[in-house]
Write a structure and sequence with these properties.
Blueprint (H helix, E strand, L loop, with lengths): L17 H17 L3 H13 L9 H37 L2
Helix pairs in contact: 1-2, 2-3
Length: 98
């Protein structure tokens, strides 16, 4: 299972503002809706984790929403990883039985 990085303690002055991170996350989520891929889910999870940084903890709402998004995107990433694992197992079985 993908570990969530909810306890970020480093200050990173190079981080973009919250609006930019949220706009990027919404864009990735829109792409994901059209074509759900593992890579898009991972990118969305990284952006959601970015929002958990102390720099974005301006309100309790942002903190709660960012944590919830991390949980939801982690579940989607895990589903993709499980699907890949099942697919690889099935492929190995098919190859070994030929």
């Amino acid at each position: 299972m993908q570990a969530m990085n909810l306890n970020v303690t480093h200050y990173d002055p190079s981080l973009p503002d919250a609006e930019s991170v949220m706009a990027s996350l919404l864009y990735i989520a829109t792409l994901y809706i059209r074509k759900p891929t593992y890579e898009l889910a991972r990118q969305a999870l990284r952006l959601a984790e970015t929002l958990t940084a102390p720099e974005y903890a301006e309100s309790e709402l942002i903190c709660r929403v960012s944590r919830r998004m991390c949980v939801q995107w982690t579940l989607l990433v895990n589903e993709h990883e499980q699907g890949r694992s099942k697919s690889a197992t099935l492929t190995n079985r098919l190859v070994n039985h030929e």
